[in-house]
């Protein structure tokens, strides 16, 4: 069996920065679409809000299935020179960035023609993003098994994403006003991102390397799904993330509408972006301490609680009280940043849980299932936001929206995030994989490798028994003799 070098745990600063650069590149496509695609469809391409909402729902659900396909591709692939994950980033990055240009270049060929073009280009972008992002996200679990170091990687990718978000918020969002040549702006922006994103992706490829020992490089379909169906922590994390992402995407999809059309303060968008960037750096420095002191699960719940409170403030605050309404947005944003920093470290922990159960390490399909639920949450959140403003009666290009349209925007920006943050908290309360238990599982896996125990899958009965056991240092589940073929 081929294997990579066993991970020493600690990561160099260069590898952490390099990993963060990869998510900066990802978000040149992802955050741009999240922030501006709905408003591009409604205000530039001329697609109705309801039709755009349905488009976002359908294509993002397709994207979720594309993640599963990408996960299987990752688990089946292996390069002796570059490992499992980096080849996908190398060869998929440029097509992904070029498709982002195509998405923001809808031709005026009639309503049906525009919708068909929008569906095809956005679906192609989603597939390309899956084939890059799934291996990128899986790479973190293969770089180290140390919880604090994984928190640093999660912080680095969040900083990368926040930096891109801040740039878009400061330099792009304030220019989205009636009468501006928005098509030329989006074309210039996305073309420049092709160059910048390619540089970032290749920086990641050459600095972020796999260091965790791998017993099986090419994983079968049965092995992949055995690690999923008995992985209760992963399934609960997926469900909680679905809820959280639904609320988060609803807020992010329409926050520009809220600042521009409800508060009449589009100039606050750059302020929000700068707060996000500064807050991300601050939280990135704080998160490892929070994890050591309180644990990842309680910190995750606290972050979701901040989004819940912030959403309620946005929903119920009068538009005339701009300071309080904006404070609610900031509070929700801080909660979103905290959860997004922690969730990737939690996902990586579930990889070890699956390996402990089955003896097979499947980062690709594990990350794919996790990303599948997040993508469906994004689909539902973006669609709910679009439907909410459509039901309120939003009219593109008008100087003043109706009162009902303003309430639709407020519901999408505050009410939906608050409701789904509550659901995310309720699910996470029963999440069983504590930091202490994860550390014990990692120790048992290391002892299994040191003892030379063969790797293989177990029967459903054995898996169920293993799942009920509370692991103790030095004691690990055994495989049946002859299971390894």
Structure description:
With 485 residues, this protein is mostly helical. The protein has one domain: Growth Hormone, Chain: A, CATH 1.20.1250.20. 76% of the residues lie in helices and 0% in strands. The protein has 15 helices and no strands. It is globular and about 70 Å long. The N terminus and C terminus are likely disordered.
Can I get a quick summary?
With 485 residues, the protein is mostly helical.
Q: Compute the average pLDDT.
A: 84
User: How is the main sheet built?
Assistant: none
CATH topology term = Growth Hormone, Chain: A
Q: What is the CATH class?
A: Mainly Alpha
Could you state the CATH homologous superfamily?
MFS general substrate transporter like domains
Distance between the termini: 12 Å
CATH architecture: Up-down Bundle
Number of domains: 1
Helicity, in percent?
over 70%
Low-confidence stretches: 1-8, 454-485
Write down the overall geometry. globular
Q: Report the order of strands and helices.
A: HHHHHHHHHHHHHHH
**Number of separate helices:** 15
Strand content: under 5%
Find the structural class using helix and strand composition.
mainly alpha
Q: Could you tell me the radius of gyration in angstroms?
A: 22 Å
Total beta strand runs: 0
